[in-house]
Amino acid sequence: MSIRKMIALHPKDQNNQTLADAVHHLMYCSKMCLSCADACMVEAMDMSQCIRLCLDCSDICEATSRLALRRTGDDQPMLRELLEVCARMCEQCAAECERHDHEHCKLCAQICRECAEDCRNAAASIA
Q1: For residue 45, what is the DSSP state?
Q2: Are the C-beta atoms of 93 and 57 separated by less than 8 Å?
Q3: By the 8 A CB rule, do 38 and 54 touch?
Q4: What is 15-125's CATH number, 3.30.1460.10, 1.20.1270.360, 1.20.272.10, 2.40.160.100?
Q5: pLDDT tens for residues 47-94?
Q6: Measured between alpha carbons, how far is 36 from 24 in angstroms, rounded to an integer?
Q7: Could you tell me the CA-to-CA distances from 26 to 30, 38, 47, 59 in Å, in that order?
Q8: Is residue 71 a contact partner of residue 12, using CB atoms and an 8 Å limit?
Q9: Gyration radius of the chain's alpha carbons
Q10: Cα 121 to Cα 55: distance, rounded to the nearest angstrom
């Protein structure tokens, strides 16, 4: 099952594949950041900043995906702004994760960079 297909089936907004791609990445990024934060908690070194940014990024991605799924009604300016904020948060999280040589941080940074790009594209696609 695909969230992209679910969004495409919505009677109001069936043609925004760019937004559907962003929602897909937002959902995964939220969970990957949460998992990375958990793994960072047991690392031998102080990972407090990485944990903080991963948790913040997870929360912002989750909130953004939830708002992006709501296609009924109209709050496009707020959604566009939230997508832009989320892209910035993902970039910050990725930069922090890239400072560490842990595989979980590398994966987290990768999904954050992909998510940031999709969020920017989706924000640009909203009229």
Answers
A1: S
A2: yes
A3: no
A4: 1.20.1270.360
A5: 999 999 999 999 999 999 999 888 777 678 999 999 999 999 999 999
A6: 18
A7: 6, 18, 23, 10
A8: yes
A9: 15
A10: 24
